[in-house]
Amino acid sequence: MLAKRIIPCLDIKDGKTVKGTNFENLRNAGDPVELGKLYSDQGADELTFLDITASFEGRKTFTDMVKKVAANISIPFTVGGGINELKDVERLLSAGADKVSINSSAIKNPQLIEDIAKNFGQQVCVVAIDAKERNGIWKCYLNGGRVETDKTLFDWAHEANERGAGEILFTSMNHDGVKEGYANEALARLSDILSIPLIASGGAGCMEDFYDTFNEGKADAALAASVFHFGEIKIPELKEYLCSRNINVRI
Questions:
Q1: Catalytic pick from 45, 51, 88, 130?
Q2: Model's pTM, two decimal places?
Q3: How far apart are CA 160 and CA 148, in angstroms?
Q4: 206-249 tens-digit pLDDT
Q5: Torsion-angle region of 179 (φ positive above 0: left; ψ -120 to 50: alpha; else: beta)
Q6: Is 11 a catalytic site residue?
């Protein structure tokens, strides 16, 4: 069985790491380069960097910042935000990214998934999905959670899988920053319909939440931000805890 992955996430706004609740009320969480190095040194399995206002502001991800972070880490590095065409992917891979995460652009132009997989390899393309549950229906959102679409979580995730995505990164907007656990019921359903790895995002508040998302949510990886940024959970201790509960992680 493949080892479960722990992935800290750097949400970047104006060159700083930020974190909010339900995608709102952002507060400063530190320097992206310093945090990236810390997590790499602590034994994180991967690092994700999301320029969270790039799509909304209609601009490209900060290439210089990506280069600085990449130069200070020794783990796989996923970058997202404002990626609309193959040139953007090429630019970020050249800057040190190992994978790219597409969200709004994939919903607007699903062909982009196929194009990235064909030109750079399936493993490079992470399709991120921000979804909110209301009255039992999970709707997908664009532009950092600002715009509701007519796409639903399970149908869109399945389509992205079929089009050649290498992984699905699902963030529950209902759970984001609330620290009461991941959306494990939705994750387990996603896991059953996908043939590619599933990354859980939104809701980590304690070590048990990670255990639950691997056990109940059937997630292949767990992404978190504030519990790492503000020192509430340290990655080496988290991995030791998961190992003690028979979750296969890289120590």
A1: 130
A2: 0.93
A3: 18
A4: 999 999 999 999 999 999 998 998 899 999 999 999 999 999 99
A5: left
A6: yes
